[in-house]
Write a structure and sequence with these properties.
With about 110 residues, the chain is an all-beta fold. Helices cover about 0% and strands about 40% of the residues. The radius of gyration is 19 Å and the shape is globular. About 10% of the residues are buried.
Length: about 110
């Protein structure tokens, strides 16, 4: 991709190289029929960042992960959210379960 800029009446060009790390920020989060994309192909556990939790003791808790609001049963990549607690969530992929703790410094 080339970026063009104006400098003193002249047009210059600069090459821009996009280093892909994690999710492509140019990929839409909404499908053509208006639904929220619930997962991304090829996302690894290292790409999942737990940003916040709104905990409901009656079971209607939500978690903000990678900018998306998700509930128990929702998926992100190959991972399903199976439990949301006050300070962590439990993810399941296949037969493996992983805990993802809320970063207190966020």
């Amino acid at each position: 991709m080339a970026l063009f800029f104006f400098m003193g009446g002249r047009v210059g060009a600069a090459n821009f190289v996009y280093e892909k790390k994690g999710r492509d920020p140019f990929r839409p989060l909404i499908t053509d029929d208006g639904k929220l994309v619930q997962g991304f192909d090829g996302i690894s556990l290292e790409d999942i960042y737990l940003e916040g939790i709104i905990w409901d003791p009656q079971g209607d808790s939500i978690a903000m992960i990678n900018g998306m609001i998700l509930r128990r049963g929702d998926r992100i990549g190959d991972f399903e959210i199976i439990k949301i607690e006050k300070d962590r969530i439990t993810l399941k992929s296949g037969n493996e379960q992983r805990l993802l703790k809320l970063d207190k410094n966020f």
